[in-house]
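Changelog note: in this version the structure field was regenerated for every chain. One regenerated record is shown below for reference.
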Amino acid sequence: MPHVVLHALADGVDPAEAYRRISDFRRYPEFTETVREVSVEPPLPDGSTISDWAVVFRGGLMRWRERDTYAPESHTLAFEQLSGDFASFAGSWRCEARDAGTLIVFDAAFDLGIPSLAEILDPVAESTLRHLIGQIVQGLLGAEVTDGRAAARG
């Protein structure tokens, strides 16, 4: 199963503010044409939300519904697909104080559910996800995404 980990350092942005911006999914379409729409339902009794996504992939739209679980005290957010075009899709965002800013870590694993085409489609999906998250983080926080683990050790 493909696993994507991305890091970004947002200078001059504290973890609480970075977390607030990342948690605002409705704004994601403002920062990339790849995310066509995100709708977020009112919070459930436990504070989690259900969101519906439509994202451009290989000339079509991938759609899914996910549960988003927020932990503002630790500046983390977890998501897990409930239904949709992936066989599975789950991950998290984490915001940690780093120097005069915030280290943002995006961590996700997905399965497109097409084993016979995984060798072809998985790298395309992984590249699309990396590009998409890069655009979102740049737009929300002015931070550049890196692949390396070096940013996490900073």
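Spot check on this record: The beta strands are 3-11, 35-40, 49-57, 60-71, 76-84, 88-98, 101-111, 145-146. The first strand starts at residue 3 and ends at 11.
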